[in-house]
Every structure is written in structure tokens, then in C-alpha cells.
């Protein structure tokens, strides 16, 4: 049996990047189709990994504040 929804469609579904009618059709299909359910789970895991990588990347001002602290703590002790 061939599914009407491919990986591209399912990833758009996860991103909620589809119109409401298609979203509903896929939701209904996933309930009935273990193959697509499995694929959605796989994509969900991939998305979670990508998201967590994005969260780990520190924002620019964080880097700047760390840089500032480093500069302060590693300042040469010229008055010694
Ligand atoms: Zn399917």
C-alpha cells in the first residue's frame, strides 16, 4: 500500500506548515497508518535534535559577557 504522504509532507506537518485541511488529513492518516506514524516519530526526533543544537548555541551577548569576564580575570597584574 502506498501512502499519500511522503517525508517532505510529514516534516511540513510537524512544522505545522500546511493548511488546516491537510493537517487534519495527515492527523487522521497517521492514526491509521503505522508506517507514517513511525516516520513522524523519526522526524520528530530529528527536529528535537536540531532544536536542541540551536538552543545550545549561545547568543552573541552571552559571548560578549563571557569575553568581558575573561578579560577582567586574566588582566595582567602590573602593580605586583
Ligand atoms: Zn501512511
Report on the structure:
With 80 residues, the chain is mainly alpha-helical. It has a domain at 7-59. 72% of the residues lie in helices and 0% in strands. The protein is built from 4 helices and no strands. The protein has helices spanning 7-14, 20-32, 34-56, 60-73. It is rod-shaped. The protein starts with 6 loop residues before the first helix and ends in a 7-residue tail after the last helix. Bound molecules: zinc ion. Zinc ion is lined by residues 3, 5, 29, 33, 35-36.
Brief description of this entry?
The protein is mainly α and 80 residues long. 72% of the residues lie in helices and 0% in strands. The site of zinc ion has 6 residues, from helix 3.
Low-confidence stretches: none
Note the beta-strand portion.
Answer: under 5%
**Total of DSSP H or I helical runs spanning 4+ residues:** 4
Bound molecules: zinc ion
Could you outline the blueprint of secondary structure elements for this entry?
Blueprint: H1 7-14, H2 20-32, H3 34-56, H4 60-73
Features:
mainly alpha, rod-shaped, binds zinc ion
Amino acid at each position: 500500500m502506498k501512502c499519500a504522504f511522503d517525508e517532505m509532507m510529514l516534516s511540513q506537518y510537524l512544522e505545522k506548515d500546511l493548511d488546516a485541511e491537510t493537517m487534519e488529513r495527515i492527523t487522521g492518516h497517521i492514526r491509521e497508518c503505522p508506517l507514517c506514524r513511525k516516520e513522524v516519530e523519526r522526524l520528530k526526533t530529528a527536529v528535537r535534535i536540531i532544536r536542541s543544537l540551536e538552543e545550545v548555541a549561545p547568543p552573541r551577548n552571552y559571548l560578549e559577557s563571557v569575553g568581558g569576564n575573561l578579560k577582567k580575570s586574566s588582566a595582567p597584574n602590573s602593580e605586583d
